[in-house]
Amino acid sequence: MNSMQLQENISLKDYSNYKIGGPARLFADVETTEELREILKQVQNDNEKIFILGGGTNILIDDKGFDGLVIHNKIQGINIVDDGLEVGSGVMIEDLLAFCVENSLSGLEWAGGLPGTIGGAIRGNAGAFKGEIKDNVLQVQSLNLKTQNDVIRNQDKCGFGYRNSIFKSREGATEFITHAVLQLILGDKEEIKQKIQQKIEYRINRHPMDYPNIGSTFKNIPLNLLSAKLQKEFAGFVKIDPFPVVPTTKLLALSGLKGRRVGDAMISDKHPNFIVNLGAAKSDDVKSLIEIAKEAVKEKYGIILEEEIQHLG
Questions:
Q1: Angle at which helices 93-102 and 189-206 pack, to 10 degrees?
Q2: Is 216 a catalytic site residue?
Q3: 23 DSSP assignment
Q4: Would the pLDDT of 212 be above 60?
Q5: With the C-alpha atoms ordered 16, 21, 22, 24, is the resulting torsion angle positive or negative?
Q6: Quick one: CA dihedral 247, 253, 257, 263, positive or negative?
Q7: What gap in Å lies between CA 119 and CA 202, rounded to an integer?
Q8: How far apart, in whole angstroms, are the C-alpha atoms of residue 219 and residue 70?
Q9: pLDDT the model gives residue 97
């Protein structure tokens, strides 16, 4: 099986939605849990740094690359089971939604246009349009990379929070999500299709999809964390996501950050929570803009922005 051979010095730029990033010292594609175990056996060193790469959609990869093993998750498969839908963690959200439409399964319409894999969505508890993946999860199966034991958790044991889960925390950081069982309901095929399409069009109209990007750079601000004065000031902007938040994009716009550039990285003037790659952006260009944005918002509003994206390298 060629897919699971350990490769050396593989450029990660092409695996990133951002088209930014240096080489991985070791790299492997895995399509099954067995292949994953096989790769782990080949890496004898217990201290080997391991990074799991899905769709490469909310990750900034350093131009210096990654001095460790990158496992590219390509575990596929979507099957209707007794209590729901069993999905391989490497399945792209787009393909999952196509399956839902085909089989008249409702519950994931909010994810229309969401990039990346189901594994990545679960790890970061992806959400949009008042929905979150945690509301669809019944069970998650993972493999502990250290012990190689399978771990099965029901929804309530996954530690889901705002753009967070146990798999993102220290406790679950050494686990590779392999499969998930999702809860969906039967619905009207045309209606499901239409709702997904609406979300896709919303994103196309409001997000800078014409340039490489990795989605929202910063998390939105939970309303209850703001002072009474700021709550009043931002009252007109509040949205439910899935609880009341002030969209960070508003703070960035009000701080005059639209269109700010460092090298070929730019804070989008269409949606300032996106930092786009105009062509030849370097990871340091993006990092500089992140710091400029944090500084500006902190100075103007006293708010500390928290990044939604992940850094590698």
A1: 150
A2: yes
A3: E
A4: yes
A5: negative
A6: positive
A7: 24
A8: 26
A9: 98
- CB proximity list for 193: less than 8 A, separation 6 or greater: 101
Q: Which of 89, 165, 216, 268 is catalytic?
A: 216
Q: What percent of the chain has pLDDT over 70?
A: 97
Rounded CA gap, 313 and 267, in Å? 22
What's the pLDDT band for 4 if we cut at 50, 70, 90? low
Distances (CA, A) of 195 to 39, 97, 109, 216, 238: 41, 11, 6, 22, 23
Cβ neighbour number for residue 173 with a 10 Å cutoff: 13
73-77, 205-209, 239-243: the lowest-pLDDT one: 239-243
Omega before 242 within 30 of 0, i.e. cis: yes
Q: Which residue has the tokens 């931002």?
A: 234
> Residue length, the chain?
313
Choosing from 123, 163, 203, 260, the catalytic residue is 163
User: Do β-strands 221-222 and 244-246 pair in parallel, antiparallel, or remain unpaired?
Assistant: antiparallel
To the query of whether residue 308 is one of the catalytic residues in this protein, the response is yes
Contact between residue 305 and residue 46 where contact means Cβ atoms under 8 Å apart: no
Q: What confidence score (pLDDT) does residue 2 get?
A: 47
56-69: pLDDT as tens digits: 898 999 999 999 99
C-alpha count within 13 angstroms, C-beta hemisphere, residue 139: 13
Asked if 123 and 113 touch (Cβ cutoff 8 Å), the reply is: no
Helix (H) or strand (E) holding 11: strand 7-11
Section 4-28 average pLDDT: 94
C-beta of residue 31 within 8 angstroms of C-beta of residue 74: yes
Alpha-carbon distance values, 47 to 146, 235, 275 (Å)? 10, 49, 34
Which pLDDT score, from 0 to 100, does residue 203 have? 92
Is-contact 246 237, C-beta < 8 A? yes
Q: Which of 211, 188, 187, 207 is nearest to 279 (CA)?
A: 211
Residue 16 annotated among the catalytic residues of the structure: no
Cα 196 to Cα 193: distance, rounded to the nearest angstrom = 5
Alpha helix (H) ranges present in the chain?
33-42, 93-102, 118-123, 189-206, 228-233, 248-254, 283-301
